[in-house]
Write a structure and sequence with these properties.
single chain, 2 domains, 354 residues, MetI-like fold, mainly alpha
Amino acid sequence: MNLEINKQKSFQRKVDNIQEHNVPTMITDDLFVAAPIDQKKHEEITTPPVTFWREAFGRLLKNKGSVISLILLVLISVMAIVGPHLNEFTYKQQNTAHTNLPPKITWLEWLGFNGKDAHGVDQYEKRQITTNYWFGTDEFGRDLWTRVWKGTQISLFIALVAAILDLCIGVLYGGISAFYGGKVDNIMQRIIEILVGIPNLIVIILFILILEPGITSIILAMIITGWVGMARVVRGQILQLKSQEFVLASRTLGASKTRLIWKHLLPNVMGPIIVTLMFTIPTAIFFEAFLSFIGLGLQAPLASLGVLIEDGYKAMRFFAYKLIFPSIVISVVMICFNLLGDGLRDALDPKMRK
């Protein structure tokens, strides 16, 4: 301690000498004083390490459109599960005395949910009906509130099942094709080209001829060619990655082919896979709605958004509410999935870090 004090005093005297007399001095070792070091205290990282997925999640949260879309999708999914149970009606229950009733909500009458038809007549008072139907009823007296949320549930279920099957088949097929390459890749890609050339509408008609129209036939028709896009995305990404240095290093160290695929290649293509999956779901919802709209999808009394839109289209001129509610739901779902897919694409793209 005394030695350090003496060095500091000597250094101060030389500095004072330079300032007073402008005398140049040589830089010597005694001018430097070692800073006190606490040997018990090691280097510490003051902030937690930022992983790729955490950074991507942070960028996603900055995208207001994607966050709002995610919240709306969660709310719609919850309502699809809970909504059909919020009243005493089932989506199949018919009541001929309550046919074509306009929407009526007691605390939203000022918004037009007052039970009055196009001529201003309160149909509930006219028929002496005390029960309120929040979305009105159809031509068979079925509650549209229950049918809309049940239809949303069925449409989301079909889309999610089709998307998951596309994910499994597409990732497996595209990964094998790109990893092995050569003749295997050529043969597998020729099969994809054949499947792409088959129109989906012909496939669904063939399944309807074999099976009854319903959920099973729609899902099978979707997965016949729906996984092709996912397979091509995975193939392209793995072809890029399999010649990278970290893959060559793993091969040199004796890593098996299974380990290379599941531990090195697939984790690095999860970003494009997730983005493709987000765009696959609204496509499947639209495809199911289209099939139901042209009469090749679900059949009565089952409900889906496509079935409800088709029923509302027939009665659009006199009972517009039958078309409005399912159209709003399917539009919000598809817009939200597309916005969320755009946000995920930007968040998972390394070029967007700045």
